[in-house]
From TrEMBL:
Keywords: Hydrolase, Membrane, Transmembrane, Transmembrane helix
GO molecular function, one term: hydrolase activity
Classification via SUPFAM superfamilies: alpha/beta-Hydrolases
Protein name, per record: Alpha/beta fold hydrolase
Species lineage: Bacteria, Bacillati, Actinomycetota, Actinomycetes, Micrococcales
Pfam families per record: Abhydrolase_6 (PF12697)
Record domain AB hydrolase-1: where: 174-356
InterPro entries: AB_hydrolase_1, AB_hydrolase_fold
Length: 397
């Protein structure tokens, strides 16, 4: 008996289905990995933007020193005209520098005038460039009688310097430094304000070196720091202030604007001076993202993460940091105070565009003069006489 004929085996589709499944799983895994990587990068960027720089490196090389000059390596900072400071030995020393004497482009060297050594020993090695020029406190840096006071805030006491006007006055100026800066930043404004008969308070705020730590130890880009500035202004009111002036540099400008928007003391403010201010944090963050080759969608995700309650922990913040609340071009109609904006078109850190747009939107309140050459918050350094004259004329008007 013959055996039944067995039909040939049909092609087995299972390996193909398995391959398709594997391909789908692999594609999905890659997409998931890419999404996780994007979120991770965005969270990292958010943390970087909000994390204080506790110690900046000495990165300016001091090549040679003589009795009247110092030779430095050529950097974008060291070849800009004007007066500047140089921190020595991790900020334990400080020297004031003046005009450029000569530049050797082939050897990458620039020689500048030495105007004075405030502390430390100036010798070949490394230092750190700074725009303050003066190194506080004011009694040592400016020869102005200074009171060392503690301002009571919701986080505890914060140190501040007070400089009284030459004659009794009910006008007080609150000077607000920028992100990662020191109170020394405000010293460049002290002389024109003091000479205008105005008392001065230069406060610290949360997360400054030597000050109280915020709930998360991170900057909130003005959205929480303004409360410490309100407390400094309240200190001035308790000292007899009837008129307040607010002066802010960089993020200090953003803090001032939040104070004007949120504080019950805003009605006491008569004049506002903003130097290289952050008018819109979104614009600044986009600028820095592009400088570092970060795709705009990643930057947008970073701002989303820091600004939403459900994702804020990825940015390491206690409360959401919604940068949309810092856009004063969009909120120009809410501005109520006379404002002088000093902002160089050559600012490499905070683009001048939003300052120009705010001035164009509110010409009834905002005065903005044309500045160039200066890098970030260094308008005074390039032309101190003009800076001081502009501020004195404005606050006296």
């Amino acid at each position: 008996m013959s055996r039944p004929k067995v039909p040939p085996l049909a092609p087995d589709r299972r390996p193909l289905r398995t391959a398709a499944t594997v391909a789908g799983v692999t594609a999905g895994s890659l997409a998931a990995t890419a999404a996780v990587s994007s979120v991770g990068l965005a969270a990292y960027l958010a943390r970087r933007a909000l994390t204080p720089d506790r110690q900046r490196p000495d990165d300016t090389q001091i090549l040679a020193v003589d009795e009247t000059s110092v030779t430095l390596d050529v950097t974008p900072e060291t070849v800009v005209p004007g007066r500047y400071g140089l921190w020595l030995d991790k900020s334990s020393g400080h020297v004031r520098l003046g005009d450029i004497l000569d530049v050797d482009e082939e050897r990458g060297r620039v020689r500048r005038e030495v105007l004075g050594v405030d502390s430390g020993h100036l010798a070949p090695g490394y230092g750190r460039w700074d725009q303050y020029f003066y190194a506080g406190p004011p009694d040592r840096a400016l020869g102005m009688r200074t009171e060392y006071v503690d301002v009571l805030t919701e986080l505890g006491t914060m140190p501040a310097w007070v400089i009284r006007a030459p004659k009794p006055s009910t006008r007080w100026a609150v000077l607000v430094h920028g992100r990662g800066a020191r109170r020394d930043e405000g010293l460049r404004a002290a002389k024109p304000l003091h000479n205008s008969g105005i008392n001065i308070i230069i406060p610290s705020y949360r997360n400054d070196l030597g000050a109280r730590r915020g709930a998360d130890g991170r900057y909130n880009l003005g959205l929480s720091e303004w409360r410490d500035i309100e407390d400094a202004a309240l200190f001035a009111v308790q000292q007899g202030a009837r008129e307040l002036l607010l002066v802010g540099w960089s993020m200090g400008g953003a803090i001032v604007l939040q104070t004007l928007s949120r504080s019950w003391l805003a009605d006491h403010v008569s004049h506002v001076v903003l130097d290289a201010p952050v008018i819109d944090w979104t614009d600044v963050l986009i600028h820095h993202g592009r400088l570092h080759g970060i795709p705009d969608p990643i930057g947008g995700l970073s701002r989303f993460i820091m600004g939403r309650r459900l994702t804020r922990r990825l940015a390491g913040v206690h409360d959401p940091v919604d940068v949309a609340q810092t856009n004063w071009v969009a909120k120009a109609s809410e501005l109520r105070h006379r404002t002088l904006i000093i902002h160089s078109v050559d600012d490499e850190f905070v683009p001048v565009g939003p300052s120009q747009q705010l001035a164009a939107a509110r010409p009834d309140l905002v005065t903005m003069e044309h500045w160039d050459t200066s890098r970030h918050t260094k308008e005074w350094n390039v032309d101190p006489d003009r800076w001081e004259r502009s501020v004195a004329d404005f606050v006296s008007s």
